[in-house]
Amino acid sequence: MQKPEVLTTQFAVCINNAHYPASLELHKIYQVFPDDDAARDGDIRIIDESGEDYLYPLQYFIPIDLPQQVKLALLQTAS
Q1: Mean per-residue pLDDT of the chain
Q2: DSSP letter string over 6-65?
Q3: Which of the four, 40, 57, 63, 71, has the lowest number of CB atoms within 10 Å?
Q4: Rounded to whole angstroms, how far apart are CA atoms 43 and 54?
Q5: Which is nearest to 20 in space by CA: 45, 52, 57?
Q6: Would you say residue 1 has pLDDT above 50?
Q7: 28, 15 in Cβ contact below 8 A?
Q8: What is the DSSP letter of 1?
Q9: What is the longest distance spanned by two Cα atoms in the chain?
Q10: How far apart are CA 16 and CA 77, in angstroms?
């Protein structure tokens, strides 16, 4: 049985890294952490290239839906 957190884990693809070239790779899929305060401010919280979660402008990303097998694979490579 799949873990519940995998079912609700969100991802987004980076479409702009203009101000953060060391932290974000264009066209890479990043894990999103829900952060209502950040969303209200127009930001998104992701795990970047440092391996830590940080806030970035929401317009730098497009949220994507992924099949559960892809989510599992992405989460396994991230740990």
Answers
A1: 90
A2: HHH-EEEEE---TT-TTT--TT-EEEEE--HHHHHTTEEEEE-TTSSEEEEEGGGEEEE-
A3: 40
A4: 10
A5: 57
A6: no
A7: no
A8: -
A9: 41
A10: 23
60 touches 17 (CB < 8 A): yes
Q: What angle do CA 10, 64, 68 make, to 5 degrees?
A: 60
Tokens 């873990």 -> residue:
3
Q: Does residue 79 surpass a pLDDT of 70?
A: no
Contacts of 57 (CB under 8 A, 6+ apart): 16, 42, 43, 44
Is the torsion defined by CA of 5, 79, 77, 26 positive or negative? positive
**CATH placement of domain 4-78:** 2.30.30.40
User: Rg of the chain over CA atoms, in angstroms?
Assistant: 12
Q: Identify the CA nearest to 78 among candidates 21, 11, 15, 26.
A: 11
Whats the size of the chain, residue-wise?
Answer: 79
